[in-house]
Amino acid sequence: MEDTLMTYINAFIVGGIICSIGQVLIDRTKLTPARILVLFVTSGVILTGLGIYQEIVKIGGAGATIPLTGFGYNLARGAFKDVDKYGLLGAFTGGVRAAAAGITAAIVFGYLASVAFTPKAKR
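^ that's the sequence the OP posted. Answer follows.
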């Protein structure tokens, strides 16, 4: 029970730190949300390539894999895996293969939300 509780606490802390960094970037810089998104995904890829993000995932679990940096981690991990399996072609296909389920879920649930609710433009 205590081990499970620490898993949840670690995920909350790591995910909270990542999201807090994003909020600080929104509040304190002139970066657009799109640039922050790209910055987070790219940071996840770079930190994975350097072997740092795996350690963050070991500590934070879902708190590290769910935010955008986790998407970059997933892309890089898939590319590394497929490079070992398929060679250079794996660098181009591995990231998409690893992230396919998440991308598909985002598209399907986004579509279902748009059907269920009436979107309105902000004024």
